[in-house]
């Protein structure tokens, strides 16, 4: 019997998936970054379509179960490639080197083929009714499918860790290169990954509990709700997110792009540099002079490479000097100058906080508030009240 509430939730999910895939496929013609996200939505739609298949084409239900295996194995690579595209320092595109990410999908297709090769009555007994068939070939297929599921668990963990490490390197790279990073830090990706991970764990726990323990931990209705929320959340953020370096892509003579290997940690970035202590001190003095005399920090579009061009010093040397000699990232260093310039304006009280923020080089009130609180431990209004109290005393 069809549960119409589950069917309605499933159709809503599939409608959302269809809309997103259409929009992202059109966008990927100009920017390939969106293509992996379209694939992720498509794979999610395949996995979520179970109730619709059971209601409208029940004869294909076992075929659908088979095809969900490569669908699950496609989620991790698609999400990783999407994040790689979002965080790439140069315009991103699919390359032959990305092909190895699809190898597990081939294993999933093989498992799907083995399932479909079973007689219909055996498939229905095993994968719909949850009954074991004590014959060699079906038992071998079940074992292989079980191993594929275990492989999917390991694959998912690998990509989750990889995405978080990639995002950490990306945010550090933003701070090394730019002084203004509004809406480019991709923090929503980390939170969404936690949500997706929760949905995956719930789905896996339900499958194992139903098939091996005979207990239902999460109802199918709850699963349909989680699937819809996951797709809706990803659509909400993914459709409006542009690549993080779009409009700032590095040229061929810029520093090396963001590394993808986990071993490429920030601490190893300057190992081959020949910059000495005395030279670093001279560079630090030159940077400080540019801030004092030319007030470069007032430029809202200031970047590491723009500063390097102004002082005629290699961007890599400036970055190394700031990180190792000054002890600050480019982002923190410039914003420190901006906050120091904002303090007397706030105490004077002759302009709004937004006017002050724009006057000292920030692009938005929110980023000014965040930087001010980080530098002083107070909001601008708290800072003004504290100093007014001190003056009165």
Uncertain runs are 259-267
Tally of strands: 0
CATH architecture assignment name of the largest domain: Up-down Bundle
Tell me, briefly, the overall form.
Answer: elongated
Mean pLDDT: 86
Round the Cα radius of gyration to an integer and report it. 27 Å
Cα(first) to Cα(last) distance is: 78 Å
CATH class of the largest domain: Mainly Alpha
* Biggest beta sheet attributes: none
Structural class: mainly alpha
Summarize the amount of helix as a percent range.
55-70%
Helix count?
16
Proportion of residues in β-strands: under 5%
CATH fold assignment of the largest domain: Rhopdopsin 7-helix transmembrane proteins
Describe this structure in words.
With 393 residues, the chain is mainly alpha-helical. The protein has 2 domains: 4-238, Up-down Bundle (Rhopdopsin 7-helix transmembrane proteins); 275-392, Homeodomain-like (Arc Repressor Mutant, subunit A). Helix content is 69%, strand content 0%. The chain has helices at residues 4-27, 34-48, 50-56, 61-87, 103-117, 120-127, 136-177, 187-213, 220-238, 277-293, 304-311, 315-326, 330-348, 353-359, 365-376, 380-392. The relative contact order is 0.09. The model is unreliable at 259-267 (pLDDT under 50).
Please specify the SSE layout and strand pairing.
Layout: H1 4-27, H2 34-48, H3 50-56, H4 61-87, H5 103-117, H6 120-127, H7 136-177, H8 187-213, H9 220-238, H10 277-293, H11 304-311, H12 315-326, H13 330-348, H14 353-359, H15 365-376, H16 380-392
């Amino acid at each position: 019997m069809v549960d119409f509430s589950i069917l309605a939730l499933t159709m809503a999910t599939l409608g959302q998936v269809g809309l997103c895939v259409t929009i992202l496929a059109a966008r990927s013609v100009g920017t390939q970054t969106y293509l992996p996200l379209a694939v992720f939505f498509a794979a999610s739609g395949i996995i979520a379509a179970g109730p619709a298949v059971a209601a409208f084409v029940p004869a294909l239900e076992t075929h659908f179960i088979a095809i969900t295996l490569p669908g699950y194995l496609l989620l991790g690579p698609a999400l990783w490639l999407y994040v790689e595209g979002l965080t790439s320092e140069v315009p991103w595109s699919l390359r032959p080197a990305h092909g190895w990410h699809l190898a597990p999908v081939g294993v999933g297709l093989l498992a799907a083929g083995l399932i479909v090769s079973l007689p219909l009555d055996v498939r229905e007994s095993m994968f719909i009714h949850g009954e074991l068939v004590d014959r060699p070939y079906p038992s071998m297929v079940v074992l292989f499918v079980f191993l594929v599921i275990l492989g999917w668990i390991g694959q998912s963990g690998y990509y989750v860790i990889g995405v978080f490490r990639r995002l950490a390197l990306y945010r550090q790279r933003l701070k090394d290169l730019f002084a203004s990073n509004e809406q480019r830090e991709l923090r929503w990706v980390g939170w969404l990954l936690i949500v997706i991970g929760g949905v995956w764990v719930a789905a896996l726990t339900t499958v194992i509990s139903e098939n091996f323990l005979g207990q239902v931990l999460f109802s199918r209705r709850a699963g349909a709700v989680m699937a819809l929320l996951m797709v809706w959340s990803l659509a909400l953020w993914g459709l409006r997110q542009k690549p993080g370096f779009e409009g700032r892509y590095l040229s061929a003579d810029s520093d090396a792009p963001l590394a993808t290997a986990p071993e490429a940690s920030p601490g190893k970035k300057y190992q081959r540099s020949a910059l000495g202590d005395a030279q670093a001190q001279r560079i630090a003095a030159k940077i400080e002079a540019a801030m004092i005399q030319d007030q470069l920090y007032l430029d809202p579009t200031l970047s590491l490479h723009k500063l390097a061009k102004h002082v005629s010093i290699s961007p890599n040397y400036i970055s190394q000097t700031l990180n190792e000699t000054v002890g600050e990232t480019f982002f923190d260093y410039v914003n420190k100058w901006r906050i120091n310039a904002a303090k007397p304006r706030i105490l004077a009280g002759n302009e709004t906080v937004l006017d002050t923020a724009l006057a000292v080089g920030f692009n938005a009130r929110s980023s000014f508030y965040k930087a001010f609180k980080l530098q002083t431990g107070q909001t601008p209004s708290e800072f003004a009240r504290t100093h007014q109290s001190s003056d009165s005393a």
